[in-house]
Amino acid sequence: MKKRIYLDYSATTPMKKEVLDEMMPYFNEKFGNASSIHSFGREAKEALDIARDRIAKAIGAASSEIFFTGGGSEADNWAIKGIAFANKNKGSHIITSKIEHHAVLHVCEYLEKNGFEVTYLDVDEYGMIDLEQLKEAITDKTILISIMFVNNEIGTIQPIKEIAEIAKEKGVYFHTDAVQALGNIPIDVKELGVDLMNFSSHKIYGPKGVGAIYIKKGVKIHPLIHGGAQERKRRAGTENIPGIVGFGKAAELAIENLDAHIAHIQKLRDKLIEGIKNNIDYVRLNGHPTKRHPGNVNFCFEFIEGESLLLSLDMVGIAGSSGSACTSGSLDPSHVLMAIGLTHEIAHGSLRLTIGDFTTEEDIDYVIENLITIVDRLRQMSPLYEK
Amino acid sequence: MKKRIYLDYSATTPMKKEVLDEMMPYFNEKFGNASSIHSFGREAKEALDIARDRIAKAIGAASSEIFFTGGGSEADNWAIKGIAFANKNKGSHIITSKIEHHAVLHVCEYLEKNGFEVTYLDVDEYGMIDLEQLKEAITDKTILISIMFVNNEIGTIQPIKEIAEIAKEKGVYFHTDAVQALGNIPIDVKELGVDLMNFSSHKIYGPKGVGAIYIKKGVKIHPLIHGGAQERKRRAGTENIPGIVGFGKAAELAIENLDAHIAHIQKLRDKLIEGIKNNIDYVRLNGHPTKRHPGNVNFCFEFIEGESLLLSLDMVGIAGSSGSACTSGSLDPSHVLMAIGLTHEIAHGSLRLTIGDFTTEEDIDYVIENLITIVDRLRQMSPLYEK
Amino acid sequence: MYSEKVMDHFMNPRNVGEIEKADGVGEVGNAKCGDIMKIYLKVDDGIITDVKFKTFGCGSAIATSSMATELIKGKSIEEAVKLTNNAVVEALDGLPKPKVHCSVLAEQAVKAALYDYAQKNNIVIPGLEDYVPAKDVHDHHDGDGEE
Amino acid sequence: MYSEKVMDHFMNPRNVGEIEKADGVGEVGNAKCGDIMKIYLKVDDGIITDVKFKTFGCGSAIATSSMATELIKGKSIEEAVKLTNNAVVEALDGLPKPKVHCSVLAEQAVKAALYDYAQKNNIVIPGLEDYVPAKDVHDHHDGDGEE
Ligand SMILES: Cc1ncc(COP(=O)(O)O)c(C=O)c1O
Ligand SMILES: Cc1ncc(COP(=O)(O)O)c(C=O)c1O
Ligand code: FES
Ligand code: FES
């Protein structure tokens, strides 16, 4: 078979074998509904409890503060709409940043159309928010700050603890989207002091279609999905037991292997960054040089366009992603690349390669080698490039 | 191993082997994100398209009218909130029934707290709504009628086509929760004339945590989960490809085997109903005698309480469910049993046994035999029973 | 969900039945959810020599009835009146939180039977001086989901 | 996502490059998303004898540039001016819906080059009488999701 190198771990990950093994009995043996009181139901309930404990342990929370959802996006929607509607008597102002995931941004835009006011904080050229700007943005009417932990495109890590302190001081809830953080940097919700934090299983070698949210005890929030009394009446719907079991296992593995995982991907990340910088002209590393996701590589290649780059890489078996307008499905290039101050033209030539546990040194060598040729070929075709 | 007889197919089903087989490659081989343009992404996208086609075919819809969700409850929430908020300029009145699933009822109650008005239609002793009462309930401000297709507790089947005609005539959207209908009665959305219909995979031998909604072309609806541009910008979140693939396969199998499936479970259902009626005194069949889910058996046993009955059945390996207050998690017995006019005392002794593809004649014999003994034992303990 | 002890007392309840010509009978219940517990006492010389129960209710209600009767059998009425629902729960190795209230029903049924005995014999049992027979002691809390 | 033909024209684009001292040059693009297409024509006796392109854009933009140049090479300017984006799309066995607009860029680039030729030679090409050079022909529609 043709060589295939997956460098899109921030988009989604393959499931680990241990995760699948753990899930298997729950598909057609222990298949009960966790709400049923018979033995089939109790088996499911036990599995649910274990998974919840594992997630709780992974982030230093109490099990009763963990709620499962159908994914990271649902959890983002829940956090923001849930807090907004439950606390609108206190105020109607929300603060977020310009580089949030769309599952946060589009919810905020929806709320703006429904009587809420939203401040979108700027970021600097590295994608970092400004704590002073945050402080100034807080008003009497502010009920929620939502700032992501690790950016999914450029990998920048925000100062979550400092933000939490500011929020706490002002008596404002603080939510952080930690979908890209879990399993890639250590997390302790109590030490960080956040009120809400959400996760997605398929980013940490777990199954797709499962997520979770940490809701600190005492936080006032409405459900997003009403109905049955599952998840302590906060999130209705028959629990996806195999999915939740897999997520729990994936979280457990992620924490057990955290140091080795980080060391492995960081080494390869740095090798890739150096390889590109040393071999290709007119490139620019996006994101923060040090406060960055250990597996994230994001470059702009001037004079060429991202989709062409992705397609060319795909032809040699390399899977990456881009913030180019041509792949975005909207009129504009990535809002994150715009927010860090790139021009449309430069943002167009962005390439994100994200490294994971199954990436090897040889993969990186192969990528660098092919990237050199491909970038050159596309530049030769470009009306913007004059050699 | 101890005998285990699962008679709770309306709560959830085991996955069929063919379903699991179809899902397997998508966990860690074809694991891409369907939004990615590389080969891993395209494999996922293809699988997604096939599954969507299968669901569409199963209900006579166009593929572009099918949207995947994280379950039946999410789809109910989406249908009702989505229509309510998108059409509130037209009116703020919703009509539903007293026997809907909580994923409909609790959404309606939530909307009542947020400026909407809701009419809850009565049902007769068999659980049927009254079309005249429906007609009378419709006002200038009515924007949505939501009436379930097949009731999950007592199995009663509503006259969906007639309701759709009334809705159409009045220019009101009509949603039906078909979670218990799919795979148990033939469905053709075009012939029925409904605007929205939702489903849940784990009720038809597919995986948990996946659902779908049919939204007729042209229906004005807001998303419930905002974010990425998945599902044609209507439902954000990385698609649960293995889950969706499994659901698609399950729907395909359900339709292929529909006649045999119905014949099989109906025969066993009738055998169980007769067995109970002929051997145990003071019992009452709940639900409609003929317009009923082919696998649904729901009886009240006077003088005893449902949880005790379930526990006793569980001790001999039989898994069922009950509408008793003691199992409901709320102060009251099943709202469905109340709506068909049962007293608290009678509703207390309810038992639902739901039959599926893996149920056998011997299972039914075993259940009848044990039920006779158990009911007698519990009645001997009951202060209400005088023999 | 239930401990082994609860399941044992549910499946093999002790002291089920009625006592003809009982010295004290107590019936308590919750009009709303319909659970009913009835306890019969035989008292000799201030000692509970026999006790029986009938219960219409959940597994926990039956098990707590059974355990409560066991705990007061052979005891003096002064001891029996001190029986708390917590003692019953403990003796059963615990109950799921939403089921703890069923044990209150058992405590109340015992008290009601003792009160009946006191009334019939025109005595005052220490600890029952202020007792007012209550039928409605049963409320449900949080719980599990549903399919 | 893309047909085999598109991928072929993307990976092995025909007529890439520039023509020095071209008889007509057209450049179109979308200020917003930054895609740019440049077409060079060599015209002899009303016949397009050579054509080259350079494109900064997506796979579809490159493939449609390549196909467009193939379709007009050897044709008369009267024929070339009739080239529609639909013809280019068809020749490529179709394009995904959100990518159809890239083919419009190709049509416009050809027209711009022909217009430039007409201007330089002071002639009027039938079908280009009302042509106004437009830079902004590129808009994006619906699309796929994101992780
Ligand atoms: C009629 C009905 N609607 C909705 C649901 C909710 O579906 P899910 O459990 O997939 O959220 C169920 C079952 O749980 C049901 O029976
Ligand atoms: C930062 C971030 N937030 C939210 C999400 C959404 O998660 P999901 O795809 O599970 O809905 C993603 C990825 O998709 C992400 O990277
Ligand atoms: S050039 Fe932008 S999408 Fe084709
Ligand atoms: S008697 Fe109703 S819950 Fe125990």
Automatic annotation (TrEMBL), chains C, D:
Gene Ontology molecular function terms on file: iron ion binding; iron-sulfur cluster binding
Coiled-coil ranges from the UniProt annotation: none
InterPro entries: NIF_FeS_clus_asmbl_NifU-like, NIF_FeS_clus_asmbl_NifU_N
GO-annotated biological processes: iron-sulfur cluster assembly
Pfam families: NifU_N
Region forming the signal peptide: none
Residues in NIF system FeS cluster assembly NifU N-terminal domain copies: 1-122
PANTHER family registered for this protein in UniProt: IRON-SULFUR CLUSTER ASSEMBLY ENZYME NIFU HOMOLOG (PTHR10093)
Name of this chain's protein: Nitrogen fixation protein NifU
